[in-house]
Amino acid sequence: MTLKQKPKSAPKSAKGSVKSRILRFLMVVFLSALTVFVTSRIVAPYIVSIALVRRAIEKSIGRWTGQKVQIKGADLQFWPQPKITLNNVIMTAPESGGKVVFANIDQLSATFGLWDAAMGRPVFNNFVLARPTIHLHRNAYGKIDWSNGGHFARALATVQET
What we know:
Mean pLDDT: 80
Order of helices and strands: HHEEEHEH
Number of strands: 4
Helix content: 25-40%
Distance between the termini: 104 Å
Shape: elongated
Strand order of the largest sheet: 1-2-3-4
Largest sheet: 4 strands, antiparallel
């Protein structure tokens, strides 16, 4: 009597090698993405200038309010998210020579995109104001006088009494 041998199935190593290749590929992709992320955070202070970001946010606030913006100090951080913090922000009427103050903000912070900032065009989001004092002046007709043509002035122009 002879013993019958079972037919050999496909070797398990073929299935294992496909799984291990996929796992290796995913690890390489993950480690590459992690390396790019960490490197961008480390290199960012050398690529993005605080002066550039400060000027950009100053212009942005000026366009929004229509007022002259003065910033006493600025701090830039890149971890965990790029963020600028401005200290002692003062907004004045441009034609008053700094005498008519519309707002004093102890601290104003905003996040921005690292890529846009590196390209010289930072886009700001998530504005946070700490201890703001906003003065609304009325003109001779009793209307709120924030009339230097900023986005805020256009928004106030559409407000109706209720």
